[in-house]
Design a protein that fits this description.
endopeptidase fold (from Nostoc punctiforme), 9% helix, seven-stranded mixed beta sheet, mainly beta, single chain, 11 helices, 1269 residues, Immunoglobulin-like
Length: 1269
């Protein structure tokens, strides 16, 4: 029973395990055998092949024959066959197990698979030989009663496997051997039936076709024949298939049932090797696969290159992109044509079948000539191989010929003018030429270009020129056909591109400026870019100028005699003589015409007209063109007109050349200076002098003749007949020239002082040069003159005559001179003056700033005329003019006389500080139209004199009016007294003293009530020296800490005569100080310190009687007065007063301090047992006469705080703190031991279960599921 129970338990456990195995097996892929069965056909009992079954069957040869036996320990014929069918063939045996079946059951089960029946050994052998019977078939033997008596398995060579009888056991023998033998147990055979037991397998086939018949159809380069496929099982090749022309192929032998893969290992001609694998399953019949194979196609790349350079790179601005190509080829029984455009120099055509393809260029790329050639290309299957796409790029096939052209450069002048001799392009200006200009051709294209420099037609690397590189140089020469100067490249020298034509050397007579850099393009084959006329290379002609100098003939230098400092022409003409405005004409004497100021000037024509003017830089009169006025050439220049003041003396033409750009030529062709000299216009003057009253002749009267322009003045005199004449015919200019000038400035002129035979000559030039007298010409140069009669004994008592005249015609061109006619004398004007101090009208003025008014009385003036009176102050002591700042003190007044007699004031303003003690005298001169008509200059005249007396002096002392010191309190009323000491005043004369206060810190006047603080006093001194006082009253509260300084001014008659204003003077200064204030008493304040009465710390035991002492420190109390301090205890946690017996805990004490600062103590006793853990804070108040004067009530003040705590306990056994257990600590070991024991039991049970043959009892588990758990 124990064994049975154990087996039952084992069985139960086995089922559990099997359930698990089954669950796992569901996750494992099916085996190959299971897969075959799943897909087996129903033509045999089993889908297992003989190759698989034979070794397993033979494994059981020798098993004993046991009648009725059903195990491998022994069986009978049906037991053996049913075992093979069930365990080896894998049939689903009816009845549950193979051991339950007899020969009849086998007979019935196999009936659907019968393939043969016979009744003799010969029948069997024949059927085996013809393949009707096959190894592995099931054979059932029947007796004559058609009862099944034996079963066997067909073997090879007409043998059978069977369990025959006890003497034979399980073995193999020939069929014809056992047919005639009685095997016992009723095994007598009359017939037999054969059932198909195993599958026969089959052939593996492959049908191959074209995946694209449009590509392959009718194309001899494609063939389906010769494809080779490998047939694989379990990774090993087991067979080979080779296709025929129709694409069909098969294995040479049948293959056993099973799963195979087929893969192409060698593609046929024209087809891509297919890397795919095709699964097939042989299950008793042929298994086939079909494959549409991809034909190899051609991807054709048309790669363009430049045929000149062989490079796959376009030249210049050309491109290999944008060419349009078409490709034609056989396709789908006809011809297919596709087009494409090159990019990056190539175009690609895809999907082209093998064979012939024709490529033709439809459109050439930019910069290249069209390619007319048809390119036929052949791609055979042998070339292509077996990749899906054959990439074909034929080399050196698609060449492009670049467009080429040339450049012709015509040399031209940048000034486009119509030359009278022909087109401007053919003729250079002046003496210039267009021959010999040199040009560089520069590559300005996008890419390199090839220029065949050595003209051999072969490309060399050194003939490649990158962008920016100079390609070649060429020089202009005359081209008769074009009638022009040109430079040329070859007609096809330059490829399609952009080029710079840069002039590197200009031709003679031309600069490098102008249109000397032109960019041009070659865009057509054979194009010659003609850079002529408007597009030509145009230079600016060398241009220069000419400058001539104009000199005075008499002086031999560029200086006008009688000139007004290089004057220019004004509205009335010249202010005197001038070398300005003289005309010179420049004439073209070059080989060709020239352009001047935009106008064409032919040979012999006037190129420019220029006029002289003063040249400050050169210090000479010059006439010049602009520095770029005249083109490169030869010219003549001559004086063609003069001005009014000079004669045209030199009219000779000079020749000069312009050869350097920007140069102004100053010398002629021979190297001589371009200088012309002219003579000034000269003439003479004469007059007759008579008296108006009796017409008597005035002899020996001097006249001062003055050149208005230069100021040159000389004296001419009347002779004994009263006649005056300046001509050399009257008196030689050379003889004692201008000797009578000694009369100028002479106070008294008598007849004996005059020399009537002296000559007169005006030769002063504008820069100070003087010409020598010359009797060939007049004495007076061109210009305006004044003539003034000088006072002498002959005309005493008569008015002095004056006049003006002009010299404008030369004595060599006219017989007339300037005739001033008869001059009559009239009684003359008189003046007298009175000078006074402007301040008070007397003849005395203080040293300093002074104004003196001189009243000038006049007589005998002509009413309606304008006069000017000019005064000069003279120092009487020295007789010299008074000077102020280095300049003479003068004044003038211009007026129009209403009557013949009257007065006019002249005011002198000057600084007389240095003239104290001096007398100054006013001298006056009366003029009309700049001519003196009367003078009053008497140094001894008292009426004209003002005395300059020393200026008074003052000094001040400012003090506080209260205590007479220099410090005052800055209160609401401040009084400062300033005592002013004076010196040098005039006794009996009234003076005004004005004082003002200045804030020293700001420098501004002190203000009070918004007004400046000032004070004024008027006094009349009895003596020259003394003092006066000035008092200032003001509000000084805002000026505490400031210093105030008294400034004083002393005036007389409204004019300040002295002052004292020194901001740093301590004597004038009063310091304003802040008034003292009573000291403010210290504000009362208190601070407290609360402690436990027992030990003086801030902690007390919360028991029934707690005493807290609060020490109150005070400050700012008044000694000797009584104060009360009141304290209240507060609970910090509640913010409310502490209570004991229902009342607030308080304390009060009165005290009288003997000092302002000190301390007083309060004591609080209360029941604190209910306040354990609370903080108690003491609040204190100090009052006086019931009024609070100081408080200290800060709930957070730790000094005012006492904490109430438990009474401390000292334990006998201290409680340890928590933490990790130490060595020796007790731990919960029992649970841990149980846990360990449980773990050990689990391990033991596990080990017990795993021991062979030692299974747990079934009763140990409730059921199978519990075991699983």
């Amino acid at each position: 029973m124990r064994t049975a129970a154990r087996e039952a338990s084992a069985s139960k456990l086995f089922r559990v395990v099997m359930a698990a195995v089954l669950a796992v097996s569901m996750c494992i892929p099916a085996t190959a055998l299971q897969a075959q069965r799943a897909f087996a056909a129903s033509d045999s009992l089993s889908q297992v092949t003989w190759e698989e079954a034979k070794p397993q069957i033979e494994q059981y040869m020798g098993v004993p024959y046991v009648w009725g036996g059903r195990s491998t320990d022994g069986w009978d014929c049906s037991g053996f066959v049913s075992f093979v069918m069930h365990d080896i063939y894998g049939t689903d045996w009816p009845g549950g197990t193979w051991g339950d079946s007899g020969t009849g059951s086998i007979y019935n089960y196999c009936e659907p698979y019968q393939v043969f029946s016979g009744d003799s050994a010969e029948d069997y052998n024949s059927a085996f030989d013809n393949g009707t019977v096959k190894p592995g078939d099931i054979i059932i033997f029947l007796n004559s009663q058609v009862v099944t008596v034996h079963a066997a398995i067909a073997g090879e060579d007409a043998t059978v496997y069977h369990a025959w009888h006890e003497g034979f056991g399980t073995g193999n023998c020939r069929f014809d051997y056992m047919w005639g033998i009685n095997g016992g147990h009723g095994k007598v055979y009359s017939s037999f039936v054969v059932y198909r037991g195993l599958t026969e397998g089959g052939y593996v086939t492959m049908d191959k076709s074209s995946a694209d018949v449009k590509v392959t159809g009718g194309n001899a380069q494609y063939s389906l024949a010769g494809a080779v496929f490998g047939v694989y099982r379990d990774g090993a090749q087991v067979a080979t298939i080779t296709t025929d022309g129709d694409g069909h192929g098969s294995t040479s032998d049948k293959l056993p049932n099973g799963s195979y893969t087929v893969r192409e290992i060698e593609a046929p001609a024209g087809y891509a090797l297919d890397g795919r694998t095709f699964p097939v399953t042989v299950s008793g019949s042929d298994a086939g696969a079909e494959m549409a194979e991809q034909p190899v196609t051609v991807t054709l790349t048309v790669a363009k290159f430049d045929d000149g350079t062989g490079r796959r790179e376009a030249q210049g601005d050309a491109t290999l992109d944008g060419a349009v190509y078409e490709a034609s080829y056989a396709y789908d029984g006809g011809t297919k044509t596709v087009t494409g455009t090159t990019s990056n120099g190539t175009v690609t055509f895809e999907g082209i079948p093998l064979g012939d393809v024709t490529v033709r260029e439809l459109e050439a790329p930019e910069g290249y000539l069209p390619d007319a050639e048809k390119h036929t290309l052949t791609v055979s299957a042998g070339m292509a191989g077996h990749d899906p796409v054959f990439y074909y790029e034929p080399a050196d096939e698609f060449a492009e010929t670049v467009i080429r052209g040339g450049i012709t450069v015509g040399k031209a002048d940048s000034e486009e003018y119509d030359h009278r001799d022909g087109d401007y392009a053919n003729y250079a200006q002046g003496d210039a030429t267009f021959a010999g200009a040199e040009f560089a051709i520069v590559n300005r294209s996008e890419g390199f270009i090839w220029y065949d420099a050595n003209k051999d037609g072969k490309h060399q690397t050194e003939e490649d020129f990158e962008p920016g590189a100079e390609v070649l140089r060429m020089t202009t020469s005359y081209d008769k056909a074009l009638d022009a100067y040109v430079a040329k490249t070859g007609e096809r020298a330059l490829p399609y591109g952009t080029y710079g034509v840069v002039e590197t050397k200009s031709p003679e007579g031309y600069t490098e400026r102008g249109k000397v850099d032109v960019t041009c393009e070659i865009r057509e084959d054979g194009q010659v870019v003609e850079l002529t006329r408007d597009s030509g290379i145009e230079n600016e002609v060398i241009r220069g100028g000419v400058q001539v100098e104009k000199d005075d003939w008499e002086l031999g230098k560029s200086e006008a005699i009688g000139g007004a400092g290089h004057s220019a022409l004004d509205a009335q003409g010249y202010l005197g003589t001038s070398l300005e405005g003289i005309e010179f004409t420049v004439t073209n004497a070059s080989r060709h015409g020239v352009m001047v100021d935009g106008e064409y000037v032919g040979k012999g024509e006037v190129a420019a007209t220029i006029y002289t003017s003063w040249n400050e830089e050169l210090g000479a009169y010059t006439a010049q063109t602009g520095p770029d006025a005249l083109p490169y050439g030869t010219y003549t220049i001559m004086e063609t007109a003069t001005n009014d003041s000079y004669m045209l003396t030199d009219g000779k033409a000079r020749t000069f050349e312009v050869r350097t750009d920007g140069e102004t030529v100053t010398f002629d062709k021979s190297g001589a200076d371009l200088t012309w000299r002219d003579r000034v216009v000269r003439n003479d003057v004469h007059l007759q002098k008579k008296g108006a009253d009796d017409s008597h002749k005035f002899a020996y009267v001097p006249f001062l003749i003055t050149n208005v322009t230069t100021g040159e003045a000389h004296v001419a005199v009347t002779d004994r007949n009263g006649a005056l004449n300046t001509s050399a015919g009257w008196n030689s200019h050379i003889r004692d020239a201008n000797a009578n000038d000694s009369l100028i400035g002479k106070e008294t002129i008598t007849a004996s002082d005059v020399d009537e035979s002296c000559g007169v000559w005006f030769g002063l030039a504008e820069d100070g040069s003087v010409s020598e007298p010359d009797d060939r010409f007049g004495a007076l140069p061109y210009g305006e003159y004044t003539i003034e009669e000088l006072r002498c004994e002959s005309n005493e008592g008569y008015g002095l005559w004056s006049d003006s005249f002009n010299v404008s015609r030369d004595s060599t061109t006219t017989k007339f001179d300037v005739d001033l006619g008869t001059v009559d004398d009239q009684p003359g004007p008189r003046i007298g003056t009175t000078a006074t101090d402007a301040a008070d009208g007397d003849h005395e003025a203080y040293a300093g700033k002074v104004e003196i008014v001189d009243t000038v009385a006049y007589r005998n003036l002509e009413p309606g005329r304008e006069y000017t009176v000019t005064g000069t102050l003279m120092d009487k002591a020295t007789g010299e003019p008074v000077k102020d700042g280095g300049k003479e003190v003068t004044a003038n007044a211009t007026f129009t006389a209403k009557d013949a007699n009257g007065t006019v004031d002249v005011t002198f303003s000057f600084d007389a500080s240095a003239l104290a003690g001096h007398d100054v005298v006013a001298f006056e001169t009366l003029t009309h139209e700049s001519r003196e008509v009367a003078v009053h200059a008497e140094i001894e005249d008292e009426g004209q004199t003002v005395s300059i007396v020393p200026k008074p002096e003052i000094g001040t002392t400012a003090v506080d009016a209260d205590d007479l010191d220099h410090e005052a309190e800055a209160d609401s009323k401040v009084e400062i007294r300033d005592v002013v000491a004076y010196k040098g005043l005039t006794p009996g004369k009234a003076y005004t003293l004005t004082g003002s206060l200045i804030d020293k810190e700001t420098g501004e006047p002190v203000q009070s009530g918004g007004k400046d603080v000032t004070s004024t006093v008027t006094f009349t001194p009895e003596k020259a020296d003394g003092s006066a006082a000035v008092t200032f009253s003001f509000d000084g509260r805002a000026l505490a800490g400031h210093d105030v300084v008294a400034f004083e001014s002393l005036k007389s008659g409204g004019a300040e005569i002295a002052s004292h204003m020194d901001i740093e003077d301590g004597g004038q200064t009063v310091k304003l100080v802040k008034p003292e204030e009573p000291q403010k008493p210290e504000e009362p304040s208190i601070g407290t310190m609360a402690t436990d009465a027992d030990d003086g710390d801030h902690e007390a035991v919360a028991d029934a009687e707690v005493t807290i002492v609060d020490e109150v420190a005070y400050k700012g109390l008044t000694p000797g007065e009584e104060y009360t301090v009141t304290g209240t205890l507060m609970d910090k946690q509640t913010g409310k007063p502490v209570q004991s017996d229902g009342k607030d805990v308080t304390a009060t004490a009165s005290f009288v301090p003997d000092k302002a600062s000190g301390s007083v103590s309060l004591s609080f006793t209360f029941d604190g047992s209910a306040l354990k853990g609370h903080d108690i804070v003491a609040f204190e108040t100090v009052s006086k006469d019931g009024a609070e004067v100081a408080v200290h009530a800060d709930i957070d003040d730790v000094g005012q705080t006492v904490s109430l705590v438990d009474e401390p306990v000292t334990p006998s056994n201290p409680t340890p703190k928590g933490g990790l257990p130490k060595t020796g600590d007790s731990v919960p070991w029992i649970p841990l031991a149980c846990l360990a024991a449980a773990a050990a039991c689990g391990i033991a049970i596990l080990a017990l279960m795993r021991r062979k043959g030692n299974w747990v009892e079934a009763d140990d588990f409730d059921d199978e599921n519990e075991l699983q758990r």
